[in-house]
Amino acid sequence: MNGAAYLAIAIVGEVIATSFLRASAGFTQLVPSIVVVVGYCVTFYFFSLALQTIPVGIGYAIWSGVGIILVSIIAFFAYGQTLDLPALIGIGLILAGVLVINLFSQSSAH
């Protein structure tokens, strides 16, 4: 597998873990708590593998940016959480930043 695949797995693990944090109710609910712990373990393991070939700043920017976007979407559907216009603009700027890094930056290629 390559760094991008490891990063994708890390992002999925982080999104799952973060999405279950609320359901864990402060780690008082067993099953959601287990999902959170396992999800973050998967996340950090695969993120460490991704960073063997992806610069840490670029990897973290992509990981956190995509994670914010996906968690916001999941929170909308799972918990009915809505975002106001400034929040949507901010998330749009994050998305734009991730796209600029991936499409135009030479920092991610080495």
TrEMBL record:
<dbReference type="GO" id="GO:0015199">
    <property type="term" value="F:amino-acid betaine transmembrane transporter activity"/>
</dbReference>
<dbReference type="GO" id="GO:0031460">
    <property type="term" value="P:glycine betaine transport"/>
</dbReference>
<feature type="transmembrane region" description="Helical">
    <location>
        <begin position="85"/>
        <end position="104"/>
    </location>
</feature>
<dbReference type="GO" id="GO:1990961">
    <property type="term" value="P:xenobiotic detoxification by transmembrane export across the plasma membrane"/>
</dbReference>
<keyword id="KW-0472">Membrane</keyword>
<keyword id="KW-1133">Transmembrane helix</keyword>
<feature type="transmembrane region" description="Helical">
    <location>
        <begin position="27"/>
        <end position="48"/>
    </location>
</feature>
<keyword id="KW-0813">Transport</keyword>
<protein>
    <recommendedName>
        <fullName>Multidrug transporter</fullName>
    </recommendedName>
</protein>
<feature type="transmembrane region" description="Helical">
    <location>
        <begin position="60"/>
        <end position="79"/>
    </location>
</feature>
<dbReference type="GO" id="GO:0015220">
    <property type="term" value="F:choline transmembrane transporter activity"/>
</dbReference>
<dbReference type="Pfam" id="PF00893">
    <property type="entry name" value="Multi_Drug_Res"/>
</dbReference>
<dbReference type="GO" id="GO:0005886">
    <property type="term" value="C:plasma membrane"/>
</dbReference>
<comment type="similarity">
    <text>Belongs to the drug/metabolite transporter (DMT) superfamily. Small multidrug resistance (SMR) (TC 2.A.7.1) family.</text>
</comment>
<keyword id="KW-0812">Transmembrane</keyword>
<dbReference type="InterPro" id="IPR045324">
    <property type="entry name" value="Small_multidrug_res"/>
</dbReference>
<dbReference type="GO" id="GO:0015297">
    <property type="term" value="F:antiporter activity"/>
</dbReference>
<dbReference type="InterPro" id="IPR037185">
    <property type="entry name" value="EmrE-like"/>
</dbReference>
<keyword id="KW-1003">Cell membrane</keyword>
<dbReference type="InterPro" id="IPR000390">
    <property type="entry name" value="Small_drug/metabolite_transptr"/>
</dbReference>
